[in-house]
Amino acid sequence: MKYTYITTPIYYASGTPHLGHAYSTILADCYNRYYKLRGYRSRLTTGTDEYGLKIERAAQKNNCEPQKFVDDLAEKFIETWGKLGIAYDDFIRTTEPRHRQVAQEIWKRMEENGDIYLGHYEGLYCVDCEQYYPESELLEGKLCPIHNRTVDFMREETYFFRMSKYYDRLLGHIEQHPEFIYPETRRNEVLGFLKHNPLQDLSISRTSFRWGIQVPGNESHIMYVWIDALTNYISNLGGFDSELFNQYWGNTIHIIGKDILKFHAIYWPCILMSAGVSLPKSLIVHGWWTISSKKISKSDPATKIDPTMLAEDITPDALKYYLLKELTVGRDGDLDYQNLISSINSGLANNLGNLVNRTIQMIFKYFDGRIEVQGIGTIDQLDIEIREQAFLTRQIVEKSMNENSPSAAINAIMIFSNHLNAYLEKTAPWQLAKQDDHKKRMAEIFLHIVEAIRWITQLGSPFFPSISRGITSQMNFDEVLQWPEDFSLRSINVNKAHVLFDRITKEKEDELIAKWQNPKL
Ligand code: MSP
């Protein structure tokens, strides 16, 4: 059995989920579904990052006990992923005992390896990043380079992790495993950073606040939240000795945004080496969604788009389709509402939806919903082309996913759907229906179209899973979505057509855009 383990970052339980979080999760869900389709046992996990000064302060600001505060927010994330139809296998919260136990165990492993020592640290600290910055990395006015906000001066007794010890091994690993960091630009960025900045030891405990996991053996120290948070990828599997860990860990793919690259490409591998654990297979690093060129983030209310509102207005699948199709993994993309609506109208309503709908209606009209043909019928050049295009599309989907390009995979599927609409026009079964002896040819045309739609349904299931399920039930395909192998359908038995995706009218479009631009309307 082949295994894959796909993870999302665990989201800070300091604010409600926004579209940027949704994108990380939708992308991971798409990979998970794709691997399942390819016959892997694939596991998707997500969760919430609930400790640290940032969360403690956010709770205080809301006059709330930290635990109650994170309980409510974790609930919000769970609810959001439910509404978006994310099929995750486990949701970890870092305040759960099962997580604490693994975080403390990784600490002990690092300590036993002689990699942790006590010292002092002082410097400029960004609470949002939960990390110290050397002055050279700060923006003018001593602002955090990620959050553009003032950093705090902090001095504390702290445990250090001898990260410097792993410099050569880390560099060697990244150089020898080009698949470790995708895309290449991010890999080069990490290599460039490492070559210019030999690794320093890392401060990994705090004494200035209490909201965190205690350091084993010294309760006055709290574990640095990134050590705790990164360990979720192992506690999510049940710890180092679990069966799931043995099965899945070797094939781990972490989906992350570019802002958390350093933690995953530098800190995490060093922690794992210190703990005597093999490294994940790859990091897939995506870019940011912006709105009017500003990063979508919880600290900027003008950009904070609620993904559940969009999903309710246009359906979760339409949102997935748009986000996966319009953003090349690794690049940034600007969310444009007009473009969103025209993309889903043309792809899901006019192209795919229309194809399925008119096909089913004609099969009812001319064949009462059922076709059965014994042996091989009259095949012509157009049929051969459709068959060839099915195989070509499958090949492009496979290649695109190997190259981490869900966007190219979706495009190939939509092009195929377009070809099928053109095939219908060219073969024009409604014309043949006017002549007496063409029933057999008509049957053959519909067998080709329905078989091709079955391929689209299966190949498209990682990108628009509910639409795929909808087509499956309308066309009575095999319930289990599998990688298509044979193009050889000989019988059809369809149910009554219903609209797969409602086209958004101009009037509705104006109404939606006005609402999205001013969510209080
Ligand atoms: N808690 C840490 C991750 C710990 S993982 C061991 C964290 N949380 S976060 O809530 O701030 O962000 C989580 C993810 O959301 C990151 O992958 C980040 O890149 C992604 N996004 C946040 N805003 C985004 C956009 N505007 N666009 C796309 N994704 C972005 O970091």
TrEMBL record:
Gene Ontology CC annotation, any one: cytoplasm
CDD domains in the cross-refs: Anticodon_Ia_Met, MetRS_core
Reaction catalysis annotation: tRNA(Met) + L-methionine + ATP = L-methionyl-tRNA(Met) + AMP + diphosphate
Segments carrying motif 'HIGH' region: 11-21
Motif ('KMSKS' region): 295-299
Enzyme superclass (EC): ligase
Cofactor(s) essential for the protein: Zn(2+)
Residue ranges annotated for the Methionyl-tRNA synthetase anticodon-binding domain, each copy included: 419-516
Pfam annotation, one family: tRNA-synt_1g
Domain Methionyl/Leucyl tRNA synthetase: 143-359
GO biological process: methionyl-tRNA aminoacylation
Gene Ontology MF term list: ATP binding; metal ion binding; methionine-tRNA ligase activity
Intracellular or extracellular location(s): Cytoplasm
SUPFAM superfamilies referenced in this protein's UniProt entry, alphabetically: Anticodon-binding domain of a subclass of class I aminoacyl-tRNA synthetases, Nucleotidylyl transferase
Protein family according to the UniProt entry: Belongs to the class-I aminoacyl-tRNA synthetase family. MetG type 2A subfamily.
Subunit structure: Monomer.
HAMAP family from the UniProt entry: Met_tRNA_synth_type2 (MF_01228)
Role, per record: Is required not only for elongation of protein synthesis but also for the initiation of all mRNA translation through initiator tRNA(fMet) aminoacylation.
Protein name: Methionine--tRNA ligase
Organism of derivation: Paenibacillus woosongensis
